[in-house]
Amino acid sequence: MAVTTMNNPSSLRVKLDAGRDDSTGNTIVKSKTYSNLKYDANNQDVYDVAQALMGLQDYPVLEVLKQDSTTLAE
Questions:
Q1: Entry pTM
Q2: Does position 1 have pLDDT exceeding 90, yes or no?
Q3: What is the rounded (10 degree) CA torsion for 43, 49, 69, 16?
Q4: Of 64, 73, 65, 53, which Cα lies nearest the Cα of 8?
Q5: SS3 for 22?
Q6: How does pLDDT run across 11-50, given as a tens digit for each residue?
Q7: Which residues of 15-33 are buried (b: 16+ CB within 10 A; e: fewer)?
Q8: Which is the most buried residue in 25, 28, 56, 70, by most CB within 10 A?
Protein backbone atom coordinates (compact mmCIF):
# COMPACT_ATOMS: atom_id res chain seq x y z
CA MET A 1 0.00 0.00 0.00
CA ALA A 2 1.26 3.48 -0.81
CA VAL A 3 2.39 5.77 1.96
CA THR A 4 0.80 9.19 2.17
CA THR A 5 2.45 12.16 3.82
CA MET A 6 1.03 15.12 5.69
CA ASN A 7 3.27 18.09 6.37
CA ASN A 8 2.98 19.44 9.90
CA PRO A 9 4.04 22.93 11.01
CA SER A 10 7.78 23.43 11.39
CA SER A 11 9.60 25.10 14.25
CA LEU A 12 12.61 27.36 14.65
CA ARG A 13 15.02 26.48 17.45
CA VAL A 14 17.84 28.79 18.53
CA LYS A 15 20.58 27.37 20.80
CA LEU A 16 22.29 29.90 23.07
CA ASP A 17 25.63 29.91 24.92
CA ALA A 18 24.73 30.66 28.56
CA GLY A 19 28.32 30.48 29.84
CA ARG A 20 30.33 27.73 31.47
CA ASP A 21 29.50 25.40 34.31
CA ASP A 22 32.06 26.18 37.04
CA SER A 23 32.27 22.60 38.28
CA THR A 24 32.67 20.81 34.94
CA GLY A 25 33.82 23.53 32.55
CA ASN A 26 31.18 22.48 30.02
CA THR A 27 29.22 25.02 28.03
CA ILE A 28 25.71 25.67 29.36
CA VAL A 29 23.34 25.56 26.38
CA LYS A 30 19.88 27.11 26.56
CA SER A 31 17.43 26.99 23.70
CA LYS A 32 14.36 28.88 22.56
CA THR A 33 11.82 27.30 20.24
CA TYR A 34 9.38 29.21 18.08
CA SER A 35 6.59 26.90 16.91
CA ASN A 36 4.01 26.83 14.14
CA LEU A 37 6.15 27.96 11.22
CA LYS A 38 4.60 27.22 7.86
CA TYR A 39 5.91 23.86 6.69
CA ASP A 40 6.83 25.34 3.31
CA ALA A 41 8.64 28.39 4.72
CA ASN A 42 11.74 29.20 2.71
CA ASN A 43 14.96 28.34 4.58
CA GLN A 44 16.47 31.76 3.86
CA ASP A 45 13.37 33.50 5.23
CA VAL A 46 13.49 31.41 8.40
CA TYR A 47 17.18 32.21 8.84
CA ASP A 48 16.52 35.93 8.30
CA VAL A 49 13.91 35.85 11.07
CA ALA A 50 16.40 34.01 13.31
CA GLN A 51 18.99 36.72 12.60
CA ALA A 52 16.49 39.39 13.70
CA LEU A 53 15.71 37.44 16.88
CA MET A 54 19.42 37.02 17.68
CA GLY A 55 19.69 40.72 18.43
CA LEU A 56 17.07 40.33 21.16
CA GLN A 57 18.83 37.50 22.99
CA ASP A 58 20.83 37.90 26.22
CA TYR A 59 23.34 35.21 25.19
CA PRO A 60 25.41 34.55 22.04
CA VAL A 61 23.80 32.21 19.52
CA LEU A 62 25.44 28.82 18.96
CA GLU A 63 23.12 27.28 16.39
CA VAL A 64 19.94 27.91 14.42
CA LEU A 65 17.76 24.92 13.49
CA LYS A 66 14.63 24.57 11.39
CA GLN A 67 12.83 21.42 12.44
CA ASP A 68 10.39 19.94 9.92
CA SER A 69 7.78 17.35 10.83
CA THR A 70 5.95 14.99 8.50
CA THR A 71 3.28 12.43 9.36
CA LEU A 72 3.40 9.17 7.38
CA ALA A 73 0.32 6.99 6.98
CA GLU A 74 -1.06 4.27 4.76
A1: 0.80
A2: no
A3: 110
A4: 73
A5: coil
A6: 999 999 999 999 999 999 999 999 999 988 999 999 999 9
A7: bbeeeeeeeeeeeeeeeee
A8: 28
